[in-house]
Amino acid sequence: MTNLAIFVSGSGTNCENIIKYFQDDSEVNINIVISNRADAFALVRAERLNVKTAVVTRSEWNDAEKILSLIEGADYIILAGFLLMVPPYLTAAYPNRIINIHPALLPKYGGKGMYGMHVHEAVKAAGEQETGITIHYVNNVCDGGEIIFQAKTTISPKDTPDDIAAKVHVLEMEHFPKVIDSIIKASK
Fold first, then answer.
1. Which of 74, 111, 143, 151 is found 20 to 30 A from 133 (Cα to Cα)?
2. Prior bond to 107 cis, omega within 30?
3. What fold characterizes domain 101-188?
4. How far apart are CA 141 and CA 128, in angstroms?
5. Cβ contacts of residue 185 below 8 Å, gap of 6+?
6. Domain ranges of the chain
7. Helices (DSSP H) in 24-132: which residue ranges?
8. Is 14 marked as binding a ligand?
C-alpha cells in the first residue's frame, strides 16, 4: 500500500480530484489532507470523502516533529494548491517524494509570488501564445525541483486571465492524478 499526504491552502479542486481518482484503488491510500488555513474549502471536500484532515499554523510548519508525526506512514507528499514553502526538514525526509503542480510551464512564471491568478495575469501581460501545467518534484528552491511532466494549451489574444485559468484547470484535472499514479507505479 502506498500512502499519500496532501497539503492544501485553498478550495481543493485538485485535492478532491486526486482523492476521487484513488478512491477505489486498493494499492493507494490518502492518509491525510493538511492545510495551513482553517478556512480552506479543501478540508471540507476531504472530510466529505472520509479523509482525515488537520490544520497546521504557519509557525507549526517549522516544528519537524509535529509535521512528521502527522504524516507518519506517508510515502509521498502531494502539494495541491499549497502556498507555503516546504521546510528543508521535509525535503530532506522526502527526497523526490514531494510532488507539486504549478499552473504554468516552468521555468517561466515560477518562484515567489507566482501562484494562482498572479501566474495567469503575468502570462496574459506577456502576450504568451501558450501556457500549461508543470508537475515537478519539490526541493528547497521555490518551483525549482526536477520537472516530471508538462502539458500545454494555446492562448488566444482574446483570452482573459480567467479564460487562461480555466484552460489550465482542465489540464490539472486531466493530468495530475494520472502523473501521481505513474510515479507510484514506476517506483514499485
1. 74
2. yes
3. Rossmann fold (3.40.50)
4. 25
5. none
6. 1-94, 101-188
7. 41-48, 64-70, 88-93, 116-125
8. yes
Q: Is 97 annotated as a binding residue?
A: no
- Write down the pLDDT at residue 135: 98
- The SS3 assignment for 119 reads helix
Active site residues: 102
Secondary structure of residue 32 in the 3-state scheme: strand
**CATH class of the 1-94 domain in this structure:** alpha beta
Tell me the per-residue pLDDT of 80-132, one tens digit each, with 9 for 90 and over: 999 999 999 999 999 999 999 999 999 999 999 999 999 999 999 999 999 99
Inter-CA distances, 52 with 29, 49, 90, Å: 11, 9, 20
The two domains 1-94 and 101-188 share their CATH topology (first three levels equal) = yes
Q: How far apart are the first and last CA of the chain?
A: 10
Q: Of all residues in the chain, what percent carry a pLDDT higher than 70?
A: 100
Q: Is the pTM of this model over 0.85?
A: yes
How many residues are listed for the chain in this entry?
Answer: 188
Average pLDDT, the chain: 96
Q: Is residue 144 marked as binding? A: no
Task: State the pLDDT at residue 149.
Answer: 98
pLDDT of residue 58: 85
